[in-house]
Write a structure and sequence with these properties.
Elements lengths: L34 E7 L17 H8 L2 E7 L4 H10 L36 H7 L3 E7 L17 E5 L21 E3 L2 E2 L8 H15 L6 E6 L11 H4 L10 H15 L23 H34 L6 E7 L12 H14 L18 H9 L11 H4 E7 L7 E3 L3 E2 L3 H8 L15 H5 L11 E6 L2 E6 L2 E5 L9 E5 L15 H18 L10 H42 L1 H4 L1
Parallel strand pairs: 1-7, 1-8, 2-10, 2-11, 3-4, 3-7
Antiparallel strand pairs: 2-9, 4-5, 5-6, 8-9, 12-13, 13-14, 14-15
Helix pairs in contact: 4-7, 6-9
């Protein structure tokens, strides 16, 4: 039996080891059921937890993995809002009106059932299901499901909620990272709020979760959904955490992606036959950067690693608090990510760079290298480092590649076996029925798109899906269908070409060899099954030349113009007035020349 005593934050070993939760002839009473602590990171790649081979120090997350189960084939949507909708409902994202993000809706999607962006009040969620079973239900952190304010957790089963209802925002205040928005909307129990002056996301969200748990009825179990802002843009962390990684990333992304790939093989989280897909042509080669560019890029990844460690530190505080209260030993802890790593950039060149600098100046942001990760900063790791976080897989967030869909998940607690790495596939929609079964709460398996993975997690079964079973994903054209060891996938621009490909991910999770020509019958069968999936859940196919990135860019540009047009008009008029006054002055000074 493993213990936690050798690490900085000590927990009793019994806290994360216990016998199977199922099998009783009659359901357990609510007070005998386990607590559920679901911790969701934002934009964390497959290898971003320490136990998965990261350079970030995450001892508390690693401790959960060491005393439970660590999944190497956990799949989620590549977009945050659809992923969170599936996580909360156990349904496919289209079935609950979240076919894509609000920011990437195309005109053809608007108003259709799969893209309503708003839930009916009868919508069942993890909150309503656990609340009905006698649980206290709490959520703190990013919510971001559908239209802002339309689907807040207080209306869907959560007793207390402290949430940001946006795709992201500053880790220090209400400000948005998107130039088209004035603020990121925050709500407590459904009412708009301003964040406190001393807010820092990971610390404050854990503090609020502790507050809610401590104020609740201790005779009832709790469902706590801690939805961290780490490590979404803007990547921010206290300097003490950032400086702990000085020099760590100086080798650059080309070398470190190869290192992560080798580490994944050594850890056994991918098969020995795995190959590394070549980086996209649009990625910069590390050796082509100037010394100044290398220093800036290294620091960006330092901030990312520091933010990961800061989040892990505060997770440790929460679990230590539960241990001191005598609650950790009866708590199932699940820690995962909503999608693959973010590849967005915040630094630009040419006319775009000047325009972005002007917007940052207007907004009062300090994007200097010296201020990275601090209040007012706007730091991102970009596509090259995202490829390192997603290694050994291809691509990252927004794409239906393994790098966008496959993320880490560790789980431990009552009923969860101490199994180490398990490669059985699990879909994000499986988590609701899995946790219901783990808590011995009766439910109708046919009411979910997902299915319970608890038999696998408990050690009672080595499988989750059979060789003929399948599940699908789709957001804004980027799509995948899994059947046994096989996967078909399609990605739209800018990193894809909209063409379907077939991979055997049991030997090639790097998606390096398209096997569609050699397996034409299987390929056509899986495409037909995908087509049936789209009809069942209500997918709207994109037109040729369209993409999520195109919709997002168009909406950002139009939003910026709408927000700043009075200022831009004022600047134009001001320059025109200055030019007119200068011309009049010249005419008065040199009347003969003017004539």
């Amino acid at each position: 039996m493993k213990t936690f005593s050798h690490l900085a934050v000590s927990f009793a070993a019994v806290a994360l080891l216990a016998g199977p939760a199922g099998g009783q002839e009659t359901p357990r009473p609510p007070e005998a059921r386990p607590n559920i602590l679901l911790i969701l990171f934002d934009d964390v790649g497959f290898m971003d937890f320490g136990v998965y081979g990261s350079n970030s120090r995450t001892p508390n997350i690693d401790r959960v993995a060491a005393n439970g189960t660590m999944l190497s084939r956990y799949y989620t949507s590549p977009f945050c809002g659809p992923s969170r909708a599936m996580l909360m409902t156990g349904m496919d994202n289209h079935q609950v009106g979240m076919g894509t993000l609000v920011e990437t809706l195309s005109p053809a999607m608007e108003g259709l059932p799969g893209y309503s962006m708003s839930w009916k009040r009868s919508q069942q969620t993890m909150g309503t299901l656990f609340s009905a079973a006698g649980y206290r239900t709490y959520v703190t952190g990013k919510w971001g499901i559908g239209e802002v304010g339309a689907n807040l957790p207080n209306a869907f089963g959560f007793d207390r909620s402290y949430v940001m209802d946006a795709t992201g925002g500053s880790n220090y205040d209400n400000s948005s990272y998107l130039p088209a928005h004035d603020e990121s909307a925050w709500f407590e129990d459904g009412k708009p709020i301003k964040l406190p002056a001393d807010y820092y996301s990971s610390r404050s969200l854990v503090d609020k979760m502790i507050e809610y748990i401590d104020a609740g009825d201790s005779q009832k179990p709790f469902l706590g959904f801690l939805s961290l802002q780490a490590v979404h843009i803007p990547v921010q962390a206290p300097v003490s955490f950032i400086d702990g990684y000085n020099g760590t990333f100086d080798a650059g992304w080309d070398v470190m992606r190869e290192q992560r790939y080798r580490r994944a093989l050594e850890l056994g989280i991918v098969p020995p036959s795995t190959k590394l897909q070549a980086a996209p042509d649009a990625h910069r080669a590390w050796d082509d950067l100037t010394a100044e560019e290398m220093a800036i890029a290294s620091r960006e990844m330092q901030v990312n690693a520091g933010m990961m460690e800061a989040a892990d530190f505060h997770i440790g505080r929460l679990m230590k608090h539960l241990e001191d209260a005598g609650q950790l030993e009866n708590t199932i802890v699940v820690i995962t990510s909503d999608n693959g790593p973010e590849s967005g950039v915040t630094r630009f060149e040419g006319l775009t760079g000047y325009a972005v600098d002007l917007v940052n100046w207007i907004e009062g942001r300090d994007t200097s290298p010296a201020n990275m990760g601090q209040p007012g900063s706007l730091t991102a790791i970009g596509p090259e480092w995202a490829a390192v976080s997603a290694a050994p897989f291809n691509l990252y967030k927004f794409y239906a590649s393994e790098g966008g869909l496959r993320v880490p998940l560790v789980v431990a607690g009552p009923g969860i076996g101490e199994q180490g790495i398990v490669d059985a596939p699990v879909h994000v929609a499986d988590l609701v029925p899995t946790l219901l079964q783990a808590a011995d709460i009766e439910y109708d398996p046919g009411s979910f798109y997902g299915q319970s993975a608890f038999p696998m997690l408990s050690g009672a079964s080595g499988e989750t899906y059979g060789n003929d079973d399948s599940f699908g994903f789709e957001v804004s054209g980027n799509a995948a269908l899994y059947r046994g060891n096989w996967k078909i996938t399609r990605n739209f621009p800018p990193r894809g070409d909209g063409e379907w490909r077939l991979f055997d991910i049991s030997v090639d999770p790097g998606e390096t060899t398209d096997l569609s020509a050699e397996n034409a019958e299987l390929f056509e069968s899986m495409k037909a099954e995908y087509a049936a999936y789209t009809r069942e859940v209500g997918v709207v196919e994109l037109d040729a030349g369209d993409s999520a990135m195109k919709q997002l860019t168009n909406k950002l540009v139009s939003g910026v113009l709408e927000k700043y047009w009075p200022l831009l008009l004022g600047l134009v008029l001001g320059f025109a007035a200055l030019f007119y006054l200068a011309l009049r002055t010249l005419r008065k000074a040199f009347p003969q020349q003017a004539a």
